[in-house]
Design goal:
mainly alpha, homodimer, 9 helices
Chain lengths: ~210, ~210
């Protein structure tokens, strides 16, 4: 193997080890020594292929976002799942509900990996790389799509903010539900609540058209 | 001073020290040694007045929830702030908006203390004390009130779940906004988004009445 191939292969082994470590113990349990042992290299050799452990975490997190994107993509155009009213507005609301339920189920099934995306903080001065931001943007594009149907006259620069707020609202329901910070609640109840809130939001966005 | 008074006075000094420590360095920066030094006692003496440091954190957190309750109480019956439609439904929606904005501003002004409420996890097997749960319940009662106007026919046992979901949605907007996990956003934009989402939710809950 050439040096560049060896480096690439070591990098992939380290990312896979980081992913397994996060799945097993969460982000805070990740140790350079254990990743090196799993990937079969010396601890110092990690820093020949990545700048620091943050780069490994970002590589795992972007995979998580890519998995989530596939999950959301699978909900597009699926049969109606709870919008309740008919026509284009109902279809867009039903699409919001399906995406929110997709997000909830993804987080419930991949809790540690999903947590790592939100727990990870870059050190001051280090910025998110472009390939990470691109993946974030692709995810938000999914949310913006039904919002364009619900609020067709919203100025273009506002869609990003609205998509972000809608995602944040769903994220709040999922995170406080799964972490049981407000007491235990079943996944079935969480699904029902997510459906009720997103249905109300979709209808309210239609009713709030300028 | 009698022994019980001395114990009570030491306990209060430790809670005050814990509160200052959380304000300054966040929950993860709290050290028993520093609390003892500030309260003028030996490290071991802490455990004469509280079972463990979790009890000190819970005492700080319940104060935070009490401050938040006062903030929400101040929004009740205040002049309309964004509901937009008239009558009882408009008033209830406007009240939801004011409470959400009150929560956002409280979190922005007391970020470390507010974070500590959500970051703190009790060790397995230890349960939240009754006085903490009572304070949580008082807070949720504020949210349930306008929901009764918006969905008068909802079965009583459902109000608690809906209030919790609504709080979670607002919490999501506030937490991802203030932590800047999705990129920086100004407090003014966050306020505008919170208003838009809660207004849509209020209207949608009215439109979703059975």
């Amino acid at each position: 193997m050439k040096t560049t191939e060896r480096r690439q292969s070591l990098k992939e082994a380290l990312i896979a080890a980081a992913e397994r470590s996060i799945d097993a113990h969460g982000l805070s349990g990740m140790k350079a020594r254990e990743l090196a042992a799993e990937a079969g290299c010396a601890v110092g050799a990690i820093y020949n292929v990545v700048a620091d452990l943050d780069d490994l975490v970002l590589a795992v997190n972007v995979r998580t976002l890519t998995m989530l994107e596939a999950e959301l993509a699978a909900t597009v155009g699926a049969p109606s799942g709870g919008g309740g009213n008919s026509g284009a507005d109902g279809a867009a609301t039903a699409q919001l509900v399906r995406m929110a339920l997709g997000y909830l189920r993804f987080a419930a099934a991949n809790t540690q990996r999903w947590r790592a995306v939100f727990e990870h903080r870059l050190p001051d001065g280090k910025e998110l790389p472009g390939w990470y931001r691109d993946q974030q943007r692709r995810l938000f594009a999914f949310i913006e799509h039904p919002l364009r149907d619900l609020q067709p006259d919203l100025p273009p620069e506002q869609f990003g903010l609205l998509a972000r707020s809608l995602f944040s609202a769903v994220h709040g329901i999922v995170v406080l539900g799964l972490e049981e910070k407000l007491g235990a609640v079943s996944l079935a109840d969480l699904e029902e609540q997510t459906t009720a809130i997103l249905t109300a939001l979709g209808r309210g966005l239609v009713a709030s058209r300028p």
